[in-house]
Amino acid sequence: MTYSSIQESNLQDLHGKVAIVTGGNKRRRSTGIGYGTVQFLLRKGAKVYISARNEQRAQDAINQLRKEGMEDGIVEWLSLDLSDPRLAKRSAEEFLKKEERLDILVNNAAIGAVGPYKLNEDGLRDVMTTNHISHFAFTDTLLPLLKKTSREDKSDVRIINVTSMAHSRVEVSSFATKDDLNKDYGDSFNGYLDTYGLSKLANILHIKSLQKKLETENYPIICLSVHPGPVLTDGSKGFLSSVPYAGRLVSFLFGPLFFSSWRKGAFTSAFAAASPEVRNKADVYKGVYLTPIAKITVPSKSARSAKLADELYDTTEAVLKELFV
């Protein structure tokens, strides 16, 4: 598959389907991967919820989507604050009051690789909270509806976590404790990138565990993790601005050669969410890690660890149980 072939015709019809994309709002200066994913799904006829904290930016995205053309898709805003797992759970509960089905969940929103990162009042590092723990709580609360939808005739339910190749920067030995979740690699450019990478490793391991559990329970849900590649968005611009001077100069001069547009960057997520190939070859795609363009790729050693996946799942559940008491 090539970038020239990226179009809605690669995706299946989604009329009657309901999707959620976290972080699909309009950013200050540009649009991002989440926005692009929403656009792909809308143009195939889905009803898509843009889940974001800022209502104005979500509305800006909705207005822009309408201007650019969304065929007969439907788009709505769902308030979602990932800075606190309790708020993420509340958002999912509000969605459950609105809809009787959920076919596609794309956990896309994230704090980028730009520190400093901080511990919040619950003693959890903000980047791990937003990128993994709150998304875990959001997904877990929606899971009964995803399971119910998957039992319907001709269903095709999918859960996608958007991760990053930065996950391969860190190799860890344990996710058995809260301290393992909170690991900090220091206040430097490389340190911030590694701490961010730890949260992105968690995204892949979450998908690995979730797929295993769903298969054990005999639910035909396909779970995938996706690295969208280098995309020129507000997040990547913020990251590039933190690069040491020589790196910023190289990025300014050669960035357009190495960074793709938001639409190209969104396609691997859209492929994971709506390509008929994924369902037709479900046994091939279940639990895999995709990189551009829609290519099955082997992730890092830590990301392939069943032990780490189980530990992360159990530890995250324990952390959330404490918060929800």
TrEMBL record:
<dbReference type="GO" id="GO:0016491">
    <property type="term" value="F:oxidoreductase activity"/>
</dbReference>
<keyword id="KW-0560">Oxidoreductase</keyword>
<dbReference type="InterPro" id="IPR036291">
    <property type="entry name" value="NAD(P)-bd_dom_sf"/>
</dbReference>
<dbReference type="InterPro" id="IPR002347">
    <property type="entry name" value="SDR_fam"/>
</dbReference>
<dbReference type="Pfam" id="PF00106">
    <property type="entry name" value="adh_short"/>
</dbReference>
<protein>
    <recommendedName>
        <fullName>NAD(P)-binding protein</fullName>
    </recommendedName>
</protein>
